[in-house]
Batch of 2 targets.
Target 1
Amino acid sequence: MPSEFDIIRQYFMLENSRDDVSVGIGDDAAVLSVPAGYQLVQSMDTLVAGVHFPLETSAGDIAYKSLAVNLSDMAAMGATPAWFTLAITLPDDDSEWLQSFSKSLAALAQKYNLQLVGGDTTHGPLCISICINGFIPTGTALLRKNANVKDKVYVSGTIGDAALALVAWQGQYLLRNDTTYYLNKKLNRPEPQVELGLLLRDYASACIDISDGLAADLGHILQESKLGATIYFEKIPLSNEFKLNVIDDNLAIPLVLSGGDDYQLCFTVRAEKQSVFEKIVNEKNIKVECIGEIESVKGLRCLLDNVEIDIHEAGYQHFSSD
Amino acid sequence: MPSEFDIIRQYFMLENSRDDVSVGIGDDAAVLSVPAGYQLVQSMDTLVAGVHFPLETSAGDIAYKSLAVNLSDMAAMGATPAWFTLAITLPDDDSEWLQSFSKSLAALAQKYNLQLVGGDTTHGPLCISICINGFIPTGTALLRKNANVKDKVYVSGTIGDAALALVAWQGQYLLRNDTTYYLNKKLNRPEPQVELGLLLRDYASACIDISDGLAADLGHILQESKLGATIYFEKIPLSNEFKLNVIDDNLAIPLVLSGGDDYQLCFTVRAEKQSVFEKIVNEKNIKVECIGEIESVKGLRCLLDNVEIDIHEAGYQHFSSD
């Protein structure tokens, strides 16, 4: 079996490309330069086999998702991604698995000019933690707490696809065959909304990424901003593939409001900025949809045909007993 | 069972104290300021239950060690520790365990003015990853690659105590009772050499912390510096507790050279700086010992009674089949 050092050397010494990395992998720590006038934005997310992805998920998909969920946190802050560290716990030394994992990781990292600068390889049940770093011009981070009354509530992309793919994968729902590829891609290879996040620095008052479900994550914005909101279920963007498979509102509602794993952005825009914002995202061909409005009355209300939906679920929580 | 959010709120919202933390726990990412003229130093280490510590290790010891091994990486770079993120995977929600864990973590963090700024709580087999961040004045990081011929090789503290404690804990060696407390403390609560690391910015040419064993870690300095060294086994500092228990050189040699887990520093000092350096560490009451010298002939040689020891072991490696 190769040593820990061999694994790092063989699979994770990816291209050293960034000028702001003085020391990358191979010393006791990385030495990095944050540009003057910028703040460091740092986040860490863990994926555990059998909890955050089914055990049979491919190495390439696991690598992609591990990094994508972290990139999504950068997007939610409006940050430019820069570097990451990787802690990977492996049950064994499967060189084919490691090859696929590192190839997929490197491809996504390269797309965002993101450099792997350190980490740890350990032996145990499969678990991946990534700590990601990015920059923002000082004082421009998109926070959850700055929504205002009358701000418009937006989401990007389409909502509910990942949740639908998951229940199908778990055998709880039978998909039409010709949508399986599309939906599984949404679950396993979510596209982090980094470009939109950067744009939102100039337009959004508050922002979060949708990992735990729209209701729960918008709920965080409302809680931190000490406000409420009404959203309209009909306005929430759904993919054709979702609509083809889910006709019954009773199934659509939990998938869309509480499903999670979409890694789209949910954000608020001041009413006076709305038209300029929509013009710009149209020009850039970024899909966003206004789904409601911030209000002073606390709590989240979601209407369907003008009737309020009872939002039972608080979103997917790893320790929930539900 | 409490939700993921409850666990973070209840146990890990430690005191927010540092001025350079604009956003800590509670948003999609932390927002942090690196002071002008300084570089960011970042490292990540993982501890897996049953691999890096015996399953019966107390929550307080696990928390302490998880953070201490990361602080040790800061020490090895000469960095001032500042912030950390914590990814903790828990098999269940044991509030007593979590209480002890977070209390111990907070105490060590406070000692080094270190702030927890983010992380992730997940469900699965016990595993702790910490990503630590510190600063150094730009260009002053202590690297492995800058040792020079005739530099003196030093180690701090005493070597071999943690390895002895581990073999005793594993039932492979019978300790004298009155040394068990001392040795277990060395294994479970190693003292990161942060103060020494800061001092070494002005004196050391190369530096590493001893996590994998003196031979392996000094070996990294030699490999990166493309040089060799001779060290003298008699000069390696051993504790009285070690000497009381280990009389046979055949046991002492592997424990001291390959044992690992001591988290002392191994570093090189230019010959002309040696006397000033030793004067200063004496004044500061920091224990260091010169154990040998860097040479142009590659490889590590260790002499005992003028006879070269055969250094079989390459240090503790997690994937080693030995």
Target 2
Amino acid sequence: MTSAVSTLRAILNPRSVAVVGASSDPAKFGGRVMHFLLKHGYRGRIVPVHPAATEILGLPATANLCAAGDPVDVCILALPAGHLPAALEDCGRAGARGAVVITADFAETGADGATRQDELLQIARRHNMRLIGPNCLGYINPQLQLALTSSVALATEPMQRGAIGLASQSGSLMASLISHAQDLGTGFSVAATVGNQADVDLCDLVEYFIDDDGTRAICLYVEGLKDGARFLELAQRARVAGKPILAVKAGRSAAGRQITQSHTASLAGSYAVWEAACRDHAVCLLDDPEALIYCADFLIRFGAPAKSTVAVMSPSGGTVAVTGDRVVSAGLALAEPGETTRRELLKLLPPGRTINPLDVGGLPRASGLDSALTAYELLARDPAVGAVLIAVATTPLLEDKVRRWGAAALAGKTPTAILLTPGTLVDGARAALKDIGCPYTNRLDDTLRVLRAAVDYGEALRDPPPPALPSKVAAAARIHAATLPAGRLNEPETKAMLRACGISTTDDVLARSIEDAVAAAQLIAYPVVLKGVCRNLVHKSEAGAVKLDISDAGALRAAWHDIEQGLAAHLPGTTLDGCVVQPMIRGGTELIVGCRWDDQFGPVVIVGTGGVLVEILDDVQMAVAPISAGHASRLIARLRIAPVLAGARGRPAGDMVALAETIARVSELAAALGPRLAELDINPLLVLEAGRGVVALDGRATLAH
Amino acid sequence: MTSAVSTLRAILNPRSVAVVGASSDPAKFGGRVMHFLLKHGYRGRIVPVHPAATEILGLPATANLCAAGDPVDVCILALPAGHLPAALEDCGRAGARGAVVITADFAETGADGATRQDELLQIARRHNMRLIGPNCLGYINPQLQLALTSSVALATEPMQRGAIGLASQSGSLMASLISHAQDLGTGFSVAATVGNQADVDLCDLVEYFIDDDGTRAICLYVEGLKDGARFLELAQRARVAGKPILAVKAGRSAAGRQITQSHTASLAGSYAVWEAACRDHAVCLLDDPEALIYCADFLIRFGAPAKSTVAVMSPSGGTVAVTGDRVVSAGLALAEPGETTRRELLKLLPPGRTINPLDVGGLPRASGLDSALTAYELLARDPAVGAVLIAVATTPLLEDKVRRWGAAALAGKTPTAILLTPGTLVDGARAALKDIGCPYTNRLDDTLRVLRAAVDYGEALRDPPPPALPSKVAAAARIHAATLPAGRLNEPETKAMLRACGISTTDDVLARSIEDAVAAAQLIAYPVVLKGVCRNLVHKSEAGAVKLDISDAGALRAAWHDIEQGLAAHLPGTTLDGCVVQPMIRGGTELIVGCRWDDQFGPVVIVGTGGVLVEILDDVQMAVAPISAGHASRLIARLRIAPVLAGARGRPAGDMVALAETIARVSELAAALGPRLAELDINPLLVLEAGRGVVALDGRATLAH
């Protein structure tokens, strides 16, 4: 354990806490903190700090923390922003190991706030104190009955212990999740808010949870990551430790990204990169905060299914029909139980029934209870079934059936998601499940999220992407790039860099004059392509600087003049640096392959559908670079255009081997050059028939410095 | 009101009921019915029918309904299947106007059951009795405190009156919805199950609800419609009456379709056609049964928004970020409030906040309550805002804020969806909203469904598809088709039918010999296309019977031989009827345009992306035929390929006018020939540049008789 983690452990498991700005008034932040500390029965030492009061809620208060005896492990500060620096200094001087700052109006409100936040951070660093917040709501540690928070959720809710570790950038989301956990009969090892993450960030908490024996699943509400690479390293450690990470990330939309800025001063970064990184690192990405609890609880109690298939059963024909439809719509595969299972099930059922989804309604009354249980067990024990979904609707003997199903699920090895579709009408069944510790959901949306997360997590565990090998191109890329100036690379420069990395491009000739071009075309053989080269020209096609399928010298000359005139109209005063002449290649499938430097995760490699379909298909896959060719093959397989590449409708299959190798090389290039390669696009990369390779027809890049 | 509806009205609002198979044992169907009739306080006459008992639960029982005084309005029968025919005869003889048959094991279990079901139906018809069921759970009419059902839901739930009319093919779904309505503080005019729909079907109930003053929204759970055309007529009447219809339809997946068969003997039909029909007829199609209640309640209390835009606010920054993301992901447009609204809002808020989504957390304590209300009212009154979503998370003074928001929403004109994200923690706020009659949701999934349904319903009301005009092609189509035999039409026959309807095709020549073909090609001018014609040949391309881009007579002769050999290999023993020679046309965009006869809705016109993209894009739109060209334009606009047709990335725009006109003509052809035209495909229909029209390059059709 690093010393940073051990300090955080001490802060999250304190023997003593000081409340700076303590009050007995629950309408005030410092008052709520005091009330919750006492109400939930924290058994450590509590030191109220107040400039005047000698006693608060029966505890002796002090005006000077340094004079209050042994150093406290953690101070919580709920003071107006102006009083914070001095108070934080006091905490530091008194030897506190950590400080929790609830107060808002820091970096999230703009530059002035960011300066004030930095001031706090410097004070904390000077005193070797970890800082949680500012602009957070503190944390709870139910194992210690510690509620070190001002969240109003703690006014009514008891603190249920459990194995979920929660780190949230939002205080009120923590409150909502505490409430849902309580309702479902589950709870937390620690639930903490980190607000603006001035010092302690989500990754610190993930590291703590990985090392914490009491935590079995890690839930995150993320507005922005401070260090994407560290997050991915921790995700790898969590995978090895068998602790699933489940995350909700704000900022998928432009609107959401604006909010993360004004809420916790977080740069949300690219959601697409985040999504790709999570998928490759077995992080379950959810779209809904409350679903974190459902999914974490399910994974804690059942683990991931061994197979990615689902069997659906319900005592209601209508419910089973709708549920079957929705399971299929959610992209989950319905299991196909084996012949023995079928035979045994059909013995229990009225005629005409299907096996999956399975309608277990209308069973003979006398044997109904037993048959309902037997039906479940037959499905759950079938080796073709990865997980079972029981959609519970009203039926005679409901509570008994549900209790038996739940007990059998907990006793068995097949993850089983129980959905209770009616409202309070079936609260008895909910209580029965809580009673035996069996998770359940109340809405099919959540049931499907649970199954999706469990299936995806299982697949990620079984089948992690192959590791990237030592780079074949790193040295060449660095040597080549060392000679290049910062700024935009034109097409010949970009292609030269690609060739240095062993990526196939067209054999181009850069002609400085029409006559050079005519000679080059003669050599290349008609038909040829002519493209204008000019450093300031970004959108060649729009400037009319791309001429395809030129069949003879006359047409070539005309094309050169057209390009000159087009450039003059498009960028007046700019002169042409020349034109590239290249062979006209027909057929194949056009892709875009490239890379970007991402502020959170670093180098990212991208592959997508090119050409006229770009907007329609919106067909892009990406991964944090570098990746192996095997990993690149997975990105290709996930493209919507994949069937065409594979040879749909009688077309020849594309050269998937060369394509995967090229994507891997681009990813190695991206990793090798790091932030220097701001972006690179091969557009189009033409994928030829299997065995004929791929070829970069055009390309551009930007070097950062 | 038709007499059928007035009979149904009498049955659903009975002055007297008989329970055939009555019992005092609540474990039996007939016992539950008796208990629920008494428990919920039905004030009409109740006649228990039993072969031996003289009294059941304090009411005098009879063995012979005919001897029991005045005829009863409705009998409910819960007897073993074998006893039903005789009992139903008794009911008929006693003058009952309707019978509800709960017993299952009829058409849903196969052919024998279907025969037994038909026998019941004949008995009912003979006695002029309407039959509800079999395989149903009866109905409730809370206005009369009538629970004429065996559903266990009625054992615990009171029956809340309300303005939702529910017709369900599933009994336990009705139970679940009764429970959810109760939880939300809303209820039903009538909630009825129709099971196998042997006689009374969903449409009968829709018609009843349209005429019923107590019903303001109509909810349906559909497994199969008996008469799609009638449903669409009723949907039109409901639209005029201002009563939204909301529906969940099972059978979207193959698995779901199997279940509808074994559950209520319903043929689910094509979900895609159903979806298209609902969209064009202002029927809100939902994917989740419980959401019916949320959406119906919302539309009853608020109506549809005048604009299709949403403003989002929350006192939690995290919640507002996630909610903003999800609203955008759901395809809902965020409203852009005007300058005045912005200015006024910014006065209330800490610096740095965005306007929509709006984070109203951290308001100054003294003015917090007022500011939270003012913020809502500023948004709700802004003319750019169609609907407001308030995502309520924990915040100080939560209940007061929520009560004020709810009251303001009910008093105002802007539909407002209130989401309560925490669990039981905020049950106080839920009670406050129930108290004032303001709808709310507990999960964002449902909030988004509510807003989506309300926005879609508003758009459908404002902007119904233009009506189809009298057909331009009906007479020609009928005359042309009268000459054709049943079975598959080959390419020349199909194209002749298209031309008869004014649809442009290539100018083909059907050549019976190679020399004819050479002569034809000379006339048409090279390059040409040669295709084999043979009635038994369905998949021309797979048999190698399509040869493109033939440039001279030599190539043409070779192509003819290739086609002959390919056919011999593909369909041994079959001879070629000849080959069509057609001009080779380049460019344009390939679509598929066609029609199908649908068992539920009749003629359906289809347009979709053709060519190599078919599988990838899965890009199909359809409508119940006939449709106008204006309506066809909407189908085109909804295609994913629409941007390419409109001229994306510098390509010329396609001839959208000719395309829309062609789709309309195909729809008229489909409507004119009715079930005789089983299917027709123009594949591909080539869409040329604007002004150059469209042209059918190939086509096939099947006539039914």
